[in-house]
Amino acid sequence: MLKLRLKRGGRKGQPSYRVVVMEARSRRNGRPVENLGYYNPLSKEFLVNSDRVKLRLNQGVLPTRTVATLLKKYKVITE
């Protein structure tokens, strides 16, 4: 089962995240199936390829609660 979730990067105290499609059972920083964008919580910068996100959601990929909240907040999806 695939999930749309965040993969952590950056250094201690300065997190940055990539929005990725990964196997649900893989570890947090494992190998992604596809990179779709990034999120920087310090500067509130959020950039994703919205066409690919919508395609993946239509294919049945489930977003995590955090990713779903971000997608709604930045108006990538409407629900």
From TrEMBL:
Cross-referenced SUPFAM superfamilies: Ribosomal protein S16
One GO term describing the cellular component: mitochondrion
MF annotations from Gene Ontology: structural constituent of ribosome
Organism superkingdom: Eukaryota
Any one GO biological process: mitochondrial translation
UniProt xrefs under InterPro entries: Ribosomal_bS16 (IPR000307), Ribosomal_bS16_CS (IPR020592), Ribosomal_bS16_dom_sf (IPR023803)
Keywords on record: Plastid, Ribonucleoprotein, Ribosomal protein
One Pfam short name: Ribosomal_S16
PANTHER family cross-referenced by the UniProt entry: 30S RIBOSOMAL PROTEIN S16, SMALL RIBOSOMAL SUBUNIT PROTEIN BS16M
Family per record: Belongs to the bacterial ribosomal protein bS16 family.
Identification of the protein by name: 30S ribosomal protein S16
